[in-house]
Specification:
It contains 14 helices and 28 strands. By secondary structure, the protein is an alpha/beta fold.
Length: 603
């Protein structure tokens, strides 16, 4: 794809490397010698060191935390902002100590490029390799290696070439080719902002020149349009009828009038206007912008979906994926534990399905057949999501392919998506997405229909044991709601089997197709603004997932009728004594009221 760069973009770069190899010193020297420090900052730090009887270090300009200065290591990822004539920079100083790999990954995940610092005297160490490997895992391909502390080896060219040869060989094994190697001394300032006379044998760029020489870490304005939805803002209380879909464009561009599809839901609408805070509407938004959109048609969009153009390459949608995962937690990643996967603005429950390979980033040894992923190891894994997500693979668009895994409210790991894998709903989901793209919309906005009926459309699935009073309870619920003026309808599975499904009834094991057709009928009735009550015998979790593929998940309640749940379903409510019909219906009504279902409220 053709890439373009904005006139004045903001460029993020991470400085990383093994502990004590001097990356904070190099960065501090870069800021000081380039004139990027606030007035008086350098003198202030020097005076603080004098008053505390400590030798001044350029790293102190970066390491602002007290415990970092006392221990002499970088613990968290510091962010520094400065400018050159060419562009604005966000520089991230990532920790090098092995105990703070999580912080390094967090910092590096926001970067467009990286400087990896290696001590010329100590040479390549375990975290040099680990950080290099992780940069590749995070999809950062633009890397400059700084061979620091050249003053300690008397600026010996042979020592520089030895470090360069060893580390180039390692990076080659992980598919990374550095932009360049720079011999430097952060302490003395050699080749940081000014070329050093002590390295006449080096004809390359300084660190500062390398920064400005990253020719266009590209803003993907010509790539496929991608905007993860951050939120939907409504201002109806203030007399503003607009519903503004907000997010950050991470790839491509979009113009007012374009047809937009939101994935994974597959909902489609024409982009009416592009809104920005405290300024006139724009005609176009492109990568790096954070606009708000209004849509010509009313559709329900939620956080976590990705907006894409109707015409053009689309991201993948599935609940199974193959990924390269770097594990950070002291507790290993195991198959029987549920994690939260966060990808862009989307988040959902995930489990480890399998581990195909395990790599040690230090020596690149591979293990197979393992059932858990240990701390600081990288695994090629298959991950299964509870609900499908939309994403790209890392070779296409980095921003929509990177994720983190959360366990017990802490970041436990992270990775990049290598490949989408088919799940059990893929065959149906493809049909649904195509259906929604081709759907002929009614001229009546859905909110107007809901306001007229005084209700929210809802699907109530009543399932359970064969001899339980499912139909009796469902029909009584329908009767009560109807008497209150609700537009409600009861639909038994048998009605579908001998009606819509008459052409395939008895043709073989077509349970999945029966349920898909039931879901499509439900979708139409929900779209019409109705409350639909469906009954069926012993639905499984897979059956419900298939229904959720066709019907908006937020408008479904699943009820199990019977003393014992006999499948792997996860019902919203269990009716344990179905023989008491009045009490059972009352219990369902209370549950729906607690969930604020059915009753219309102005959004």
């Amino acid at each position: 794809m053709e890439l373009a760069v904005k006139d004045r973009d903001t460029f993020s770069v991470v400085f990383t490397g093994h502990v004590d190899h001097g990356k904070s010193t190099v960065l501090g020297r870069l800021l000081a010698d380039s004139g990027a420090l606030p007035q008086g900052k350098l003198e202030s730090v020097r005076e603080t060191c004098r008053l505390n009887s400590r030798p001044f270090e350029y790293a102190f300009l970066i390491d602002a935390l007290k415990d970092e200065q006392s221990q002499g290591i970088t613990i968290d990822s510091a962010r520094v902002f400065f400018k050159t004539k060419k562009r604005d920079y966000i520089v991230i100083d990532a920790p090098g100590h092995v105990e703070f790999i999580r912080n390094m990954v967090t910092g590096a995940s926001r970067a467009d490029a990286a400087f990896l610092v290696i001590d010329a005297l100590e040479g390549v160490r375990e975290n040099s390799k680990r950080h290099g490997y992780l940069l590749g895992v995070l999809g950062i391909k633009t890397i400059v290696v700084i061979v620091n502390k050249m003053d300690l080896v008397s600026f010996d060219r042979s020592r520089f070439e030895a470090v360069k040869s060893e580390f180039s060989g390692f990076l080659d094994k992980v598919g990374l080719v550095p932009v360049s190697f720079i011999p430097a001394s952060g302490l003395m300032g050699d080749n940081v902002t000014v070329r050093s006379e002590k390295t006449p044998w080096y004809g390359g760029r300084t660190v500062l020149e390398s920064l400005d020489g990253f020719d266009g870490i590209p803003v993907l304005t010509e790539g496929p349009f991608r905007m993860p939805v951050q939120d939907v803002y409504k201002f109806t209380k203030f007399g503003d009828s607009r519903r503004i879909v907000a997010g950050r464009v991470v790839s491509g561009s979009v113009k007012a009038g374009d047809e937009i599809v939101f994935l994974p839901s597959g909902k489609c609408a024409r982009l009416k206007s592009i809104e920005t805070f405290n300024s006139a509407p724009k005609l176009e938004a492109s990568a790096g912008d954070s606009p708000g959109f209004t849509l010509a048609e009313e559709i329900y969009v939620k956080r976590g979906e990705i907006a894409v153009k109707k015409e053009g390459p689309r991201p993948n949608v599935t609940s199974r994926l193959r990924a390269s995962v770097f594990w950070l937690s002291e507790s290993p990643m195991v198959k029987d534990k549920e994690y939260t996967l966060k990808l862009g603005t989307a988040r959902g429950s995930a489990v480890l399905e399998s581990i195909d390979k395990i790599f040690d980033p230090e020596d690149l040894d591979k293990d197979t057949g393992e059932n858990s992923l240990l701390r600081n190891k990288v695994g090629e894994c298959v991950i299964k999501l509870k609900r499908p997500m939309s994403f790209d693979i890392v070779s296409d668009i980095r921003e929509t392919s990177r994720f983190v895994l959360v366990s017990d409210n802490n970041i436990a790991g992270g990775g990049i998506i290598l490949e989408p894998l088919k799940d059990k709903q893929s065959w149906s989901r493809d049909k649904v997405i195509q259906r929604d793209i081709k759907w002929e919309k009614s001229a009546i906005p859905y909110r107007l229909r809901h306001r007229r009926y005084g209700q929210k459309p809802w699907l109530i699935v009543v399932t359970g044991e064969k001899d339980a009073a499912r139909k009796t309870i469902a029909k009584k619920l329908e009767e009560d709601l109807f008497s209150e003026g609700k537009i409600v309808y009861f639909l038994g599975m048998v009605n579908v089997l001998y009606g819509v499904d008459a052409d395939i009834k008895g043709a073989g094991n077509d349970k999945e197709e029966h349920i898909r057709r039931l879901a499509e009928v439900s979708h139409i009735m929900i779209d019409a603004g109705m409350i639909l009550i469906v009954t069926a015998i012993e639905f499984s979790r897979e059956d419900i997932d298939l229904i959720r593929t066709s019907v908006e998940s937020d408008n479904i309640t699943v009820i199990w009728v019977g003393n014992k749940v006999t499948t792997d379903i996860e019902p919203d409510l269990v009716i344990e004594r179905p023989e008491d019909v009045e009490n059972s219906v009352g219990k369902i009504r209370r549950h729906l009221a607690e969930k604020n279902a059915l009753e219309y409220d102005e959004e």
